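INPUT
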Amino acid sequence: MNKSHLLPPNLTLFGYKICPYVLRVRYVLSLIELDHHYIELDVYANKPAQLLRYSPIGRVPTLIIDNEALCDSTVISLWLAQVYAEHQLLPANAWEKAKMMNDMAAIDSVHDAISQLISADDKSSFNAALTRFSSVFSAVLTLLRAPCSSPNSLVDVWAMVLAHLIRSVDTILQGMLSQHVPQIRSLPDIYRSRARASLRYQALLPQDYVTRLHNMMAHRNAYCAQLNNIALAEEEFA
Ligand SMILES: N[C@@H](CCC(=O)N[C@@H](CS)C(=O)NCC(=O)O)C(=O)O
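OUTPUT
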């Protein structure tokens, strides 16, 4: 199969607009300005056969390239970064590249801790997830504080998406995260930044992003739903 840069492949992305992993890939596609077909799915409510055919566990992002698929944001973005190397999303030097991937893996550990927070259904599992979050978060704090400037490397994209997610989850949990980890308050706020990268990222976010994230959490997180009476009216976040 020819996946060369000179012959742009036929691309379809299965996504879910509030998913941070999907946002990473959409951001990279936007930087590269690569034409693709986008299919929005609420993967927690519905996994169509069209997705399961390529991703047996029904996860997004899944990128169909001609008739084959890549099913993980890191794998997809590494492929794109290497094919479209002129965008310099990855360092050419092998050691620098390995260090960057190390940082990207550390950022993924924070996403895992946030997933545990989001799916906690009692106080003890929520507290365990909070402790885990706080320990993995401190390892990436310097990365997350870096200003969003252009052009972006992959780790900058990872950091921007995570910083935005943490701030949003903290808002929804009415400051419970930042009470526990005060450094969250010093993370960049993409809505206040005019940097090119922030504006590009904002353009990908649904206008009702916080409401949708909030609804997804209320649906999945029995403990926080009780704590904060999380089923708030949509207007509160409009
Ligand atoms: N490691 C994967 C994680 C992807 C992931 O967890 N996606 C979530 C949506 S945010 C998903 O598809 N969840 C559906 C499920 O697990 O059933 C990546 O980097 O792409």
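end of record. Residues 94-118 form the longest helix (25 residues).
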